[in-house]
User: Fold these one by one.
Assistant:
Number 1:
Amino acid sequence: MKRSTKVTVAAVALALAVPAAALGTLDEVGVLQGTPAPAPSCPDRPCQAIPKTTGYQAKVDTNRSVHVIPKDGRIVAWTITLGKPGKEQTKFFNEGLGGEPQAQITILRPGNKLYYRAVAQGEPQKLSKYFGQTVQFPLERSIPVKKGWVVGLTVPTWAPALAVNQPGTTSWRASRGKGKCNDFDRQTAQTKEMGISQFYCLYLTARLTYSATLVSTP
């Protein structure tokens, strides 16, 4: 995967703005130390993508906190690794899932029975020109977050950011209700702040390829 040169300036500037004496830390929520980053499926056949939903990683091996925010702080940027679908694959997804690929991060506050409230969101980003790359997007405004909240990925159309054929101990959840887990044409993406959705649907042997940069509160 080629890493895009776009974008790290704002995130770095924000990190450097934290006084050294403050002892804030810089964490990448969604990156597991000692675990290699998986490659998205596209352009392999079948080329699989995230369709019309908001998701987060529920588990990788024994780790159930992959996208759970570990400390109070501020999210300053997010990163996504994209597959490189071919022209026909791209046309198929564009026509079937509502248009060109795009995504944004959504900060989720957990409630009961797998219900989550979308308390904040980053700006939506178009993804086509970054196919085959890992790209980081600094936020125009950093997002204050609390320990225990979750960084989700909202995809109103589609995004080739899904690694498949992972171990059975790997799974992710989507903002779809009971009985709707295979209804991929239905729009369930959380695109409005303060909206509430149930993340009932669990998908095994797959991993979402995104993360978020957290500057912790000293």
Number 2:
Amino acid sequence: MSLSLVLALVWALAANVLAMIPSKDNHWTRAYILIGIGIPLLGYVTYENGPWIGLLVLAAGMSVLRWPVRYLLRWVRRQVGQEKA
């Protein structure tokens, strides 16, 4: 197993542990930190293991951080909807 996949698994484990700890801001600070670490890590995984494994790791990360992804999609839809008017 490559170093990048080991780091991705450690990231996923840390994300799950952080999700179990109570938070006053609904885990948003932790989500931003995980996103900041996860994006370069995703690039590293894709570089070492190819695009298909990179897509699998992306899907796994999106399943862990599903609320930021939902809010991003809602924001994008609003921005696209405003351009049509």
Number 3:
Amino acid sequence: MRIRSGLTVLVVVLAGLAAGGGTAGAGTATTGSTTGTTRAAATGSPYCGITWGSAEKTAGELSGAPLVAVRAGRHDCFDRVVFEFAGAVEGYSIAYGETWTDGEGLALSPYTAGDQLLRVSLRAPAYDDDHLATVPYRVGDRAANVLRYRTLRDVVFGGSFEGYTTFAVGVRARLPFRVFVLAGPGTHSRIVLDVAHQWQE
């Protein structure tokens, strides 16, 4: 009777160990799977295939064709700011950092919404040959309505001095951006700034 009882206990113990070993194996497999998922998320694919980066973008020479309009637009993967000129313009320097008003050097960060600022320097004036303004903004004015935009928070005019025009573009974070030039409409040209909604999928 004792031998039979002892064997019963041994069988129960061995069954428990076998079940515990199976559970431990499953737990290890789950942990491995979770780790793999986390690693994949950490090195996720570029958002919308965007590979622009967030480094400074600079191109072109100084032009005399004045700025005549600023517009903003929302797209599926990015927000856009368009600067339109009355003639051929392709010069710009755009980077993350403090923006200063042209001519007086006043920092625009206290007056611009957003956690990060894009410093936009356009190599063209915002006035004509008679030094009359070609845009309706004064220094510190908002040049575009970006209410309810996913990435853009503000577009503030920093002024125009000695042929250069400055804007502070406020964004919600340091995100990838690109800059390119388009011809038209007509004899006009446009410098386009796109800021992505996020870094990775």
